[in-house]
Design goal:
The complex is a heterotrimer of chains A (289), B (371) and C (358). Chain B has 371 residues and is an alpha+beta fold. Chain B has helices spanning 46-54, 96-106, 111-124, 140-152, 170-187, 198-204, 222-227, 232-237, 294-298, 304-307; strands at 6-17, 20-31, 35-39, 61-66, 69-70, 81-84, 158-162, 190-195, 207-212, 215-220, 242-252, 255-260, 265-270, 280-285, 291-292, 311-322, 329-334, 339-343, 358-364, 369-370. In chain B, α2 crosses α3 (111-124), α2 (96-106) runs parallel beside α4 (140-152) and α3 crosses α4 (140-152). Classes of the chains: A mainly alpha (289), B alpha+beta (371), C alpha/beta (358).
Chain lengths: 289, 371, 358
């Protein structure tokens, strides 16, 4: 009995931080937010419960256009990140030697050593009209007049990819690492071309990592705030900015909370649809890698 | 020369990694339809050799011919050499049918052709009902057969097998040895089998090449390797043997007399280079040729010298008895304090030797192979 | 996953952590960046050794949001602008009335004091007194845009791609004034105000093409202006004064329809715990010698008599270059924001941001 009690206590202690974290920092605030999102302001200090905040969202095209825009841009970022991250991960996992593997991994981590804000300012210094890129292109004579690279959607996409690419590389490396080189050689040996081996062997094998990476990257991108705000141009609205505005600028917490839930639902739906389309499940992807 | 009678030929093949010569001037021809094994300890270069044949490595010099045509410029996916990998490398994300169909699809076969071929090859490996199974639902032996079927569906000129039995447990390994041999007969395709396990090589092969430090020591039938090894390495690596090293004391008529460091004097015959007095030799005697002398069994006073003309004869005491049915073995500590292994047939009768008994070991001079 | 729960959570955690460390000896100040310079804090703590000052820098919107999250707890003195008191108090009950007898008002500029009192009196109780004031207007590089004078000029095709603005309520109001409307007067008739906003939105959407980018803070505005990427912009006067110190061609321009003026106040949060210390701070920083130090840090003028003379020399030169007495007389003070206006303005801003132009 002593042993089993001790074990129980141990399990309990192990589980407590997790439960506290989930309960206090995830579930409780979300419940609070949800209740808040159902409140309607009818007069100063007078509220009623109802779905008005959600109805307002649906009725205002600006809001759901921004949400769709955020969704489409996030998907674009996810796809591009995958296209960039996959070769990098493949190189680290399969081609680089054991010793350089660690160093390469560390290199990928470097962007995370700097805060979001500093990274965005770095891009600004490089890309502004009087910035490093424009100046050096002028000095080598490729362009005559300064070019503004900032303040457009392409810059936002680039900045976001830079921020999130590591979250694609890590799960990809871990799945590709687990893939026996024999599998690839067998693919060639049985007559497959490079493309066939990539398409029919490597990609299907790495699918759990790909899906896990895509989910993380998509969620991070759709929920990012600083990069789109700082690098974005006159027309680049991001849904998180909308939420911030509702909360802070317009003092409209109720609507901000509703927007938050709309974003949560939307991103969850996109992830669900992605899982369905790729024939994967959460347990076979995120849980594994 | 009519080259088509050879499925695979290697000519003076050499490969080095940095300063290490992994494969060093290897040449061999494999006749069509044979089971050919390459036997060697790990690190001897056999895997490199096989990867060159499959096309995953390119040789520094030499040539590889399949059906008489050089394939050095053919990429791995275009060579009609298929390979069963060490861990089989079945694709876990495809079912059995898809695994076999993969290669056929790569060759551009039509759907109906693929269907008949897959069914046909599954029939031939005696697993007609597993097409829809996932790989993880198969047993070890079934996986083995599917891996072979996957290659055989493509009608390869040569099938390479890279120690595919290594991961199996002993019982299954014994069964698969026989099965592989039968499959090879059935498909009548040239099998090139890589292994470090001499018993696998001896049991299954028509011809075996013994490889050591990048070179072929000897190519021959299993019987030749066993009874007529050309080098000390082959004698020691293939089959069990008692081994001595000693100094030659006298040579006449191909016979060699030598003395071991412990002072044991034995007679043998020269299998390798000719020896002269005071050369060092390595001598090998297979345990099954060592007998307990009749004197010992009948307990008479006949002098060993008379009965044992042309034989080595040593007395000692049985240290222990390793019972294994028909393959039982005695460990005898002889007077010079060396252990000698001798095979005996135990009948379970009263006359069976027991530990602690004094015995005399005898064997013909011809069975002492000196190098 | 930086989403709205994060923001709320952060606010809550922040407020909690601050509440814990509160004691009678601590003055927790919620104010603007540069409104509590180190040297002033140090002098205050030397004068009152039993009081420790804790400073949190923020802005109008975040000050209200923080106080709202805790019902007015966590801070002992806040400094929102005069137009952010009345509605916020009605709506969220986050401030408490001031005891004016605790404050030495003899030195205060009467017009500003009366203005703030009028703006922040609810049921006979006064909630705020003025601290510093400044304006929002325009700035231009005189060597490149010598004739820049009005809010309209931001949209003049002559400066295409060379102007900037901040997409917040100030530009809505400025543009409305430039169109000959009086938005503050229209606060009492929200239908009328909506029609003004609609016109302003059309104008600003058409103007998008002319704008290089919307600036978000003093730093990016300064960088664009100093590098010459833009030649004119909407600005805070203090930012313009700072740039004037680096390039004398860059001057603050009160728009022809009048610069829009704000007054940052002293206001007590409802659950503040160190009112005495707060009053001490207020009286301390309104002393002329402290005003001088403060203005050097903020670039804004204090609401005390002769404030201009208490500015450091370079700032004084910048103000003199910018303002004539006429301009001062023409100032448009932000009017109290009645409930509902923030929503209307917010929607208009969203409409402008979302519109595809330039």
């Amino acid at each position: 009995m002593m042993v089993s009690d001790g074990k129980k206590l141990g399990l309990f202690l192990l589980f407590t931080p997790f439960a506290l974290w989930i309960g206090l920092l995830i579930i409780l605030p979300h419940v609070g937010m949800f209740i808040l999102s159902l409140k309607e302001k009818v007069a100063p200090r007078v509220y009623e419960y109802g779905l008005d905040n959600y109805i307002n969202f649906i009725q205002e095209p600006i809001y759901w256009n921004t949400l769709l825009r955020t969704g489409v841009m996030s998907l674009l970022v996810t796809v591009l990140t995958l296209l960039i991250g996959f070769p990098v991960a493949y190189y680290i996992a399969k081609i680089a030697g054991k010793r350089s593997k660690g160093a390469l991994f560390l290199l990928c981590l470097i962007p995370l050593w700097v805060s979001d804000l500093i990274r965005a300012f770095g891009w600004i210094l490089l890309l502004r009209e009087t910035g490093v890129v424009s100046k050096s292109l002028q000095s080598v004579g490729l362009i005559d007049t300064p070019i503004e690279f900032l303040y457009n959607d392409a810059t936002v996409v680039m900045g976001l990819i830079y921020t999130v690419v590591l979250f694609m590389i890590v799960p990809l490396v871990s799945t590709l690492d687990g893939m026996d080189n024999e599998m690839i050689e067998a693919g060639y040996n049985l007559g497959g071309s490079r493309l066939t081996v990539l398409r029919r062997i490597i990609v299907p094998y790495a699918m759990p990592g790909i899906v896990a990476g895509c989910i993380v990257v998509f969620m991070l991108t759709a929920g990012s705030y600083l990069t789109p705000i700082l690098l974005g141009g006159k027309n680049s609205s991001w849904f998180t900015e909308q939420i911030y505005d509702q909360f802070i600028t317009r003092y409209n917490w109720e609507s901000g909370a509703a927007f938050g839930f709309v974003l949560l639902t939307f991103t969850s739906f996109v992830v669900w649809a992605g899982l369905r389309l790729s024939g994967q499940t959460l347990s076979s992807t995120v849980a594994k890698s | 020369m009519n080259t088509s009678e050879f499925d695979l030929q290697c000519e003076n093949l050499t490969k080095h990694f940095a300063s290490v010569r992994a494969v060093d001037g290897v040449s061999f021809d494999i006749p069509a339809g044979t089971f050919f094994s390459i036997l060697g300890p790990s690190g001897c270069g056999k895997t490199t050799l096989m990867r060159m044949i499959a096309g995953f490595e390119s040789p520094n010099s030499g040539d590889i011919k399949i059906k008489g045509k050089s394939v050095l410029d053919t990429p791995p996916n275009k060579r009609n050499v298929k390979m069963v990998f060490q861990h089989l490398a079945l694709f876990p994300m495809m079912n059995v049918y898809e695994n076999i169909a993969y290669g056929l699809r790569c060759n551009g076969a039509s759907k109906s052709v693929i269907k008949t071929k897959v069914a046909d090859v599954l029939e031939r490996v005696a697993l007609p009902d597993v097409a829809k199974r996932e790989i993880h639902q198969l047993s070890g032996g079934q996986k083995q057969r599917i891996a072979i079927a996957r290659c055989m569906a493509l009608d390869p000129d040569v099938l390479l097998l890279d120690e595919p039995l290594g991961a199996l447990d002993l019982k299954l390994r014994e069964a698969m040895k026989i099965e592989l041999k039968l499959l090879q007969h059935q498909f009548n395709t040239t099998f090139v089998y890589i292994t470090h396990d001499q018993s696998e090589a001896l049991v299954m092969s028509d011809h075996v090449a013994v490889m050591n430090e990048g070179k072929f020591e000897q190519i021959g039938t299993p019987q030749e390797l066993y009874h007529e090894p050309v080098s000390a390495f082959v004698a020691g690596f293939v089959g069990d043997a008692n081994r001595w090293s000693g100094t030659v004391s006298a040579v006449h008529d191909g016979r060699v007399q030598f003395t071991t460091a412990q002072g044991l004097t034995l007679n043998g015959i020269n299998k390798g280079d000719a020896h002269a007095a005071s050369d060092t030799v390595s001598a090998f005697v297979r345990p099954e040729f060592i007998k307990l002398s009749d004197a010992n069994l009948t307990n008479t006073n006949t002098t060993a010298g008379n009965n044992n003309e042309g034989h080595n004869s040593i007395s000692g005491r049985i240290d222990s008895l390793l019972f294994n049915g028909a393959n039982s073995r005695l460990l005898v500590r002889v007077d010079s304090n060396e252990l000698i292994e001798a095979d005996v047939t135990l009948t379970g009768g009263l006359n069976d030797p027991k530990a602690g008994e004094n015995v005399t070991l005898v064997w013909p001079h011809e069975q002492t192979m000196c190098f | 996953m930086l989403r709205k729960p994060f923001i709320a959570g952060a606010i809550a955690v922040f407020a909690l952590s601050h509440a814990q460390f509160a004691s009678a000896e601590t003055l927790r100040l919620l104010t603007w960046g540069s409104y509590a310079p180190d040297n002033v804090v140090k002098m205050f703590e030397e004068k009152y050794p039993d009081i420790t000052v804790e400073v949190t820098f923020s802005n109008n919107e975040e000050m209200v949001a923080k106080l709202r999250a805790t019902g007015g707890a966590g801070f002992d003195l806040a400094q929102p602008s005069h137009d952010r008191i009345y509605a916020a108090q009605l709506e969220y009950d986050i401030y408490k009335p001031m005891d004016l007898s605790q404050i030495d008002m003899s030195n205060m500029e009467d017009s500003l004091l009366e203005g703030v009192k009028a703006n922040t009196t609810i049921e006979g109780e006064v909630y705020s007194v003025p601290h510093q004031w400044g304006t929002s207007g325009l700035m231009a590089d005189k060597s490149k845009a010598p004739d820049f004078a009005s809010w309209d000029d931001l949209c003049d095709p002559m400066y295409k791609g060379k102007t900037s603005m901040r997409l917040k309520r100030t530009i809505l109001l400025g543009t409305a004034f430039a169109m000959g409307e009086d938005p503050f007067a229209a606060y009492s008739d929200l239908d009328k105000y909506q029609s003004i906003l609609d016109k302003v939105a059309d104008k600003l959407i058409a103007c998008k093409e002319n704008i290089k980018a919307y600036w978000k803070g003093g730093d990016d505005l300064s960088a664009m202006m100093l590098s010459g990427e833009i030649v004119a912009s909407e600005t805070w006067d203090s930012t313009a004064y700072k740039l004037f110190g680096e390039n004398e061609n860059i001057v603050f321009i009160p728009p022809s329809t009048g610069a829009i003026a704000w007054i940052d106040t002293f206001t007590l949060p409802r659950k503040g715990k160190a009112d005495d210390a707060a009053y001490k701070w207020i009286n301390f920083v309104l002393q002329p010698e402290i005003v001088e130090l403060m203005s050097a840090s903020t670039g804004a003028m204090a609401a005390v008599k002769g404030a201009k003379d208490l500015l450091p020399a370079d700032k004084k030169a910048a103000v003199n270059a910018a303002f004539s007495d006429e301009d001062i007389a023409n100032l448009k003070f932000f009017a109290n924001i009645p409930p509902g206006v923030e929503d209307m303005e917010g929607k208009t801003l969203e409409k402008i941001k979302a519109a595809t132009g330039g």
